[in-house]
Amino acid sequence: MKKILFAITLVIVAMLGINTNVLAAENEAIHQLPQSYMANPIDLLDNSTADVVTTTIENPVFYDETIDLPSSKTYYLEPNYQDIVTSQSVVVSSSDSSSIGIMPMGTWSANRDNYENNNSFDIASDMSIGDPNNLYSGSIAFNANIHKEPWYLGGAVDQDYYRVDVFADAQLRLELYNVPTGKDYDLELFMFPDVKEPEWEDVTRIAQAKIGGDGQGELIIKNVTPGTYFVRVYPYQSDDWDETNFYRLYIGQTLQARSNVSIQSLKNAGAKAAIWQSDIEPFGLNSFGIENKVFVGSTLVTQYNFINQYANPFHEKLAEYAVDSKVVDTVVYIWDIQMRIQLYQILWDMAEILEDEVAANQEIVLTFEYITGGIKILGTVIGTIPTPQTKILGIVLTGSTTGAGFIVPALFPATWGDRKESLLNYLYVLMAALEADQNTSPSEIVHIKLRYQYQHEYTITGVWNYYIDLVTENTLEGFLYSGTSIGVTQSGSYSRGQVYAIRNLTDFISFKNGTLSPGIPSTGGGGGGGGGPITIEPMNFPNPLETNE
User: Fold this and answer.
1) pTM
2) Cα angle, residue 93 at apex, residues 88 and 96 outer, rounded to 5°
3) Quick count: other Cβ atoms within 10 Å of Cβ 326?
4) Chain centroid offset of residue 64 CA
C-alpha cells in the first residue's frame, strides 16, 4: 500500500509564483480545478473496474487527505475537471509515482472500433451490400469490439448496430464469431416496417441468436423482402466487454434464384400477356394499392420540437437513386393481336364518352368493379356547382372470362382522380401504343410501364407532407419491345421482380389477389378457356350525369 497525499487549496498561482515544471519534476501531478466545481465532491476511480475507490473531498476548499491505495494501478479524478483556472489547483503527490498513477479523467479513453458511434438504430453503421443501381449476391466481414465507456461518460457498455438495406427478395446470413474468450455476445436482426407514417418505434425484432456461451459465436439465417434491416451485436451481461480483443461479424446477402422468362414459352402456355411485378411494395402498397397521391408521412420542425413520421430510411435512399424520384413498379407486356385490337376499342369508347359527356376541366375519379364474368370501369364525375356531387359513367367490359377487357385495370391506378384532359391524354397514349390490326406482326410486343413517384410539399402550418403517386405514361415513345424474354430486372425499377403469365380473367384476378404463381404455367386454359376466341359483350352506358344514390 502506498500513502497518497491529496491536497486541494485555493491558490493564486500567478501571485505566489509556483513553478509547475518544478512540481512535475518532483513527481507531483497538477490538475486545474474550475470554480464551478468547487462545491462538488471528488471521486478517485480505479481504471480497471471504474469503481469508486474513495470520495476524497465533500467540500473542497482547504483540505488535505492521505489515503492508502493498492500499488501498480492507475487512478482517475472524477469529475473530469478539464478547464484551466489559474487561481485554483489540485495537487496530488505520491511517494512512488512509478507504481501508482493519478491522472485527470480526460486521459481515460475507451478503445473504440472504427464503426463508432453506432449505438442505436438511427445512427447504425451502413453495411449494405450493393445499392439500387447494383444488385448482387455478396458478403462483407469486419472486426469490431464491445468496449466500456469511461465513467465520466456514463460507464455504459457498448452495443453495436449495423444497417443493411435490401432491394430485392433475398436471404440474409449473419454470423458472429471470434468472440473473445470468457465473453458472451448475442446477435439480433430487426426490420424497419414498410408502413405509412413510420416512426423509429416501429422497428421490430424478427430474429435472435443467443444460444452460444462464453467465447462462442451466433448465427441467424433469414429470408427477407426489400426494406431496411438492422443487425445488433450486444453483450449478454454488463461485464461482457473486451475493448482489446475484437469480434468478427459476417453479413451475407443471397438474392433469390431467378432467371429471365422466355416470351415464346409464355405463348406456348396460352398466355396472351404477362405482368412483371417489382419485389418492392412501397409502404406496403402494390400497384393496385397505389392510388393518386397516397399520403405516407409528414415532418414537423418547430422551434420547440421535431416530429418525423417519414423516418423511413429505405425510401429515403431509394428516392436518392431514382431518376426524377420515379420508380418502375409494374410492366405489362401484351403480344396477343386480338387482345390489342379489343383493348384499343375499349379505350376508344372510354375516350368518346369523356369527350362528349364530361365538361372541360371536370375532375374524374376512375375505379374498377369486378362483377360475375367481367369488370366495370366506373368514372365518377365530381361536380362543383352548387356543391360537389358524384356522378357516374360506367363501362361493362366483358361477360366472358376469355374477354380482352380483363387486362385494363393493370394499365391504371386502382383509384385515379384527375382532370378530364389528363385522363384523355393517357387514353390516347395507350391507344397509340396498342393500335393493331390483322396485318400486325404476331411477334410485335407492346410493354407499358407504371411508375410511382416520391413527392413532398410544404404547408402553411410548417409541415412537410410526403406522398407517393402512381405515374402514367404521357409520351408516345418506348412502347415497342424487341426482346425475346422478360428480364428479372427492369430499367428504372431499382429492384428485381417476378413475371406472371396472364391467360384469362381468372389469372388476372389471381394476380391481383396475390395468389397467382409466377413463371410459366402449365399449358391449357387455366380456369378460363384461355385458348378460345376473344369476345366482348355490348357496352351499356348509364347516363353520365346520373347521380348515384
Assistant:
1) 0.74
2) 160
3) 17
4) 59
CA atoms of 540 and 161, how far apart (whole Å): 61
Q: Grid coordinates representing 218?
A: 451466433
Residues ≥6 apart with Cβ < 8 Å to 209: 174, 176, 186, 187, 188, 218, 219, 220
Select from 253, 421, 442 the least CA-distant residue to 340. Answer: 442
- What is the 3-state composition of the chain as percent helix, strand, coil, each rounded to the nearest 5? 20, 40, 45
Cell of 163: 444497417
pLDDT for 313 = 85
Give the cell for residue 166. Answer: 435490401
Collapse the DSSP code of 167 into the 3-class scheme (helix H, G, I; strand E, B; otherwise coil) and give the result: coil
Pairing of strands 480-481, 242-255: unpaired
All cell numbers assigned to 146? 464491445
H or E element in which residue 510 lies: helix 505-513
Could you identify the residue written with the cell 461518460? 153
- For 43, list phi and psi in degrees, rounded to 5: -100, 150
Coil, helix or strand at residue 342: helix
Q: Of 164-178, 185-199, 391-405, which one has max mean pLDDT?
A: 164-178
Query: Sheet of 73-78: strands edge to edge?
Result: 52-57, 42-46, 73-78, 100-104
Which domains are seen in the chain, by residue range? 2-107 (no CATH), 121-255 (2.60.120.380), 261-526+537-547 (no CATH)
Distance of alpha carbon 189 from alpha carbon 191, whole angstroms = 7
Residue 378 near residue 368 (C-beta atoms within 8 A): yes
DSSP of 210-253, one letter per residue?
----TT--EEEEEEE-SEEEEEEEEESSTT--EEEEEEEEEEEE
Q: What percent of the chain has pLDDT over 70?
A: 67
Residue 66 vs residue 144, higher pLDDT = 144
**DSSP assignment of 102-124, as one string?**
EEEGGG------TT-S--SGGG-
Contact 293, 466 (CB under 8 A): no
Cα(333)–Cα(547) distance, integer angstroms: 37
Is 546:391 a contact under the CB 8 Å cutoff?
Answer: yes
Read off φ and ψ for residue 546, nearest 5 degrees: -75, 130
Grid cell 456514463 in the structure block, residue = 154
Q: What is the dihedral of CA 396, 402, 405, 411, to 10 degrees?
A: 140
Q: What is the enclosing helix (H) or strand (E) of 310?
A: none
Tell me the C-alpha distance between 26 and 158, whole Å.
Answer: 39
The CA distance from 503 to 527, in Å, is 9
Pick from 468, 472, 473: which is nearest to 453 by CA? Answer: 468
Q: Tell the burial category of 495 from Cβ atoms under 10 Å away from its Cβ (0-12, 13-18, 19+).
A: buried
Residues 156, 116 contacting (CB under 8 angstroms): no
Identity (one letter) of the amino acid at 323? V
**Mean pLDDT within 321-333:** 92
